[in-house]
Each structure stands twice: as structure tokens, then as C-alpha cells.
Write a structure and sequence with these properties.
Length: 385
């Protein structure tokens, strides 16, 4: 087997990152190449979390033939794996302290204890400082694996204590091929989904398999292209925010109820039974966690819309510059060409700046409807009737 070939377990779901896989496979098998802290970076959808989990499986298992242990790690059920995936806006200090505490436990059955932090860029400075000592002086058999879009998203003090592994950006054909293999969708639909998702694997899979998601994306882009003036901008902004809220509710409602029922069963309370005052604090804590998760879900939905709009005006700019690059939104080529000829490239650059600024505002918890209204009014103000 060559260094670029990977067995099905644990590396089979890692797509298009042969060099990174080779580096981590070698480190998992040779203590001389193994750092105690790693930072895996790459654009959204590049497979950071998938690669981190595969690395954890290779570290914990007793060699490449211990597939049972590796499958347990990949399923997230092995006791020597601690995996932090925040569903809130940020990783809290409490969460950081909990994983730091677990990092000092000796492995129970595996070769190493592995701490995977999938959203390391969501740590504030105070939270990052909680991790510093654990990264400076980890126990001999503890490995930290952090994931973030870029090493610049973490404090320099964190970056100096980890080995950085940068993933390459996938091609549309790579993602489309994976979609066909995983879901069996038509290759043309897979290519469209990969292109519209801008090579983000998770979003591409959703677009390929969920017609409602495809229709919602198309409707939003066409609404923005048709908008003229303040009243249109306000109406479209309202529809976008409402769709994001509805989507978040659909994704979280069933899970929220299942979590509440499971907690009540754990506490020995029958369905519909009276909740004693002594355990109400636990239910309230669960509710607060669910509300934070819903808030992030809405924000992530709005960020996806803004990412789609960035792709739209990127296409416009490519047409204006005569670049010849393939259009992300090729299905809207007539509308895009009309818009490209309707205003100057400097105006398109301004819109792209406004979109990036709005993403930043939402990241700082700006009121979504007001932020989108302001953005769309700015966009439509430079458009001819």
C-alpha cells in the first residue's frame, strides 16, 4: 500500500486530503512524529472534523487492524475520546474547563486519550486561556486536536503550542463524485449541488438530497435580483429571516423534545407527570442550551444565505472583468449578465464588501432583520429600475 492510499477504516470518509492523511497516519504510528497538540485548518466543508475524528481513531486503536475500536471512536462512543462540538454561538468557559479536566485522565482502554475541539475558532480570549496550560503541559498519553477555518482564528499563544496542518480546498468534481457515491443522486444534480455549495461537503449533500433546500436557495437569489427600492428590500429581508427561523425550528424541535423526554426518564419522572422543584433547574438548564442551539442554527442559516449572495455577486464581478471563470450560479446566467451590464464593477465590489460586513455584524449578534434590511437597501439603491 502506498502512502497516499488509505484503508476504509478510519480514513475512508476523508475526501481529497491525501497529503494530510499521510501525515497523520505516520504520526499515529510513530511517537517520534506525534505532537501532543494539533490544529487542523481548512475552509468550511473541507473535512476538518472528519479528519480529526479519523486521526483520533488511529491514535486510540491498538494498531491499523483494530477496526472494532476505530469504529467505536468514529461513532463517538469510545471512552477515550472527548469531542467538543458547540451548538451555541461560542464555546463557553465551563465547556473548556470540563474538557481540560478530562484531558488529565489516563486512557481507559486505548493507547491515547484524544480531545477533539471541532469549533476552536468559537473560543473567546478568556476561554482560550483556559486551554493554554493543558496544551503546554499535557499528560504523556493525551493528544489535543483543534479544528478551525484558519490558524489566524486562534490566539498566537494557542498557535505556538500546536502543530498546524492545513487542508487543501476541494474541487467541485471531487465533491460531486462523493455525492454520487454516498447518495446515488444523478451526477448532474451532484455537480450543481457541489457548485452551489461552493464545495462545502455537508451543504452540498443537503442541496443534493433536499428539494426544499434547493428551491429555497433559488427563490432567495431570484428575490434579491428582482428587488427594487426600499419596500422590496424590507420585504425580501423579512422573508429571508422568517425562512431561517422556520428552518431552525424544523431542525431542532423534534430533537429538543426527545432530549427533554430523555432527561425526564433519567430523573424518574413519567411523561406528563409533575416535575419536582428540586429538578426544575436541570430542565431550565436544558432549555437554555436548546435556546442557544436554536440561536446558532438561525445565525448559521442566515450566514448560508449571505454566502450564497456572495457567490451571486462574485459571478457578476467575473462577468464584468471578463475573467472567463465558471459561474457558480450558471442557472441564472441571463439575469447575471443583465446585472453585470447595468452597473460598474466598482459597485459590485462595494456590494461584496457590504455582504462581508453584514456577516461580521451578524457574528457580533446584530439584529438579523435590521442587518439584512440595511444590506438589501444598499444593494438595491445602486440598481436601475
Amino acid at each position: 500500500m502506498t502512502t497516499t492510499e488509505a484503508p476504509a477504516v478510519p480514513w475512508g470518509d476523508v475526501l481529497g486530503q491525501e497529503q494530510a492523511v499521510a501525515t497523520l497516519r505516520a504520526a499515529a504510528g510513530d511517537p517520534a512524529q506525534l505532537a501532543h497538540g494539533w490544529l487542523i485548518t481548512g475552509p468550511p466543508g473541507s473535512g476538518r472534523s472528519t479528519l480529526a475524528l479519523a486521526f483520533a481513531a488511529a491514535l486510540i486503536a491498538d494498531g491499523p487492524h483494530d477496526e472494532q475500536t476505530m469504529r467505536q471512536v468514529l461513532a463517538g462512543t469510545h471512552p477515550d475520546l472527548t469531542r467538543l462540538r458547540t451548538e451555541g454561538v461560542i464555546i463557553t468557559i465551563r465547556q473548556a474547563r470540563e474538557i481540560v479536566e478530562r484531558s488529565y485522565y489516563a486512557p481507559s482502554t486505548g493507547r491515547y486519550r484524544v480531545i477533539v475541539v471541532e469549533d476552536a475558532d468559537r473560543m473567546t480570549e478568556r476561554t482560550s486561556n483556559v486551554l493554554l496550560k493543558a496544551l503546554e503541559e499535557p499528560p504523556e498519553q493525551t493528544i489535543w486536536v483543534l479544528c478551525a477555518p484558519s490558524d489566524a482564528d486562534l490566539l498566537p499563544t494557542i498557535r505556538s503550542r500546536v502543530r498546524v496542518l492545513r487542508l487543501r480546498e476541494l474541487e467541485v468534481d471531487d465533491v460531486a463524485r462523493l455525492l454520487v457515491e454516498r447518495t446515488g443522486v444523478d451526477p448532474a444534480l451532484a455537480e450543481q449541488a457541489a457548485r452551489h455549495a461552493q464545495r462545502h461537503i455537508g451543504m452540498a449533500q443537503r442541496l443534493a438530497t433536499d428539494e426544499a433546500s434547493r428551491e429555497r436557495r433559488d427563490r432567495t437569489l431570484r428575490d434579491v435580483l428582482r428587488a427594487r427600492g426600499i419596500s422590496d428590500a424590507v420585504e425580501v429581508a423579512g422573508r429571508i429571516v422568517q425562512a431561517a427561523n422556520d428552518d431552525a425550528k424544523a431542525l431542532t424541535a423534534e430533537r429538543d423534545e426527545a432530549e427533554r423526554e430523555a432527561l425526564l426518564r433519567t430523573l424518574g419522572i413519567d411523561d406528563g407527570g409533575r416535575v419536582p422543584p428540586a429538578v426544575r433547574s436541570q430542565l431550565n438548564a436544558l432549555k437554555e442550551d436548546q435556546e442557544r442551539r436554536a440561536k446558532r442554527s438561525v445565525r448559521d442559516g442566515l450566514d448560508r444565505v449571505l454566502t450564497d449572495l456572495l457567490s451571486l455577486y462574485r459571478d457578476v464581478l467575473m462577468l464584468q472583468m471578463g475573467h472567463g471563470a465558471p459561474l457558480i450560479n450558471a442557472e441564472l446566467s441571463d439575469e447575471l449578465r443583465a446585472l453585470a451590464s447595468g452597473w460598474e464593477a466598482t459597485r459590485t465590489l462595494s456590494v461584496l464588501d457590504d455582504l462581508a460586513r453584514t456577516r461580521g455584524l451578524l457574528d457580533q449578534n446584530a439584529q438579523p432583520t435590521l442587518a439584512l434590511e440595511s444590506l438589501l437597501i444598499t444593494i438595491t439603491s445602486g440598481r436601475t429600475p
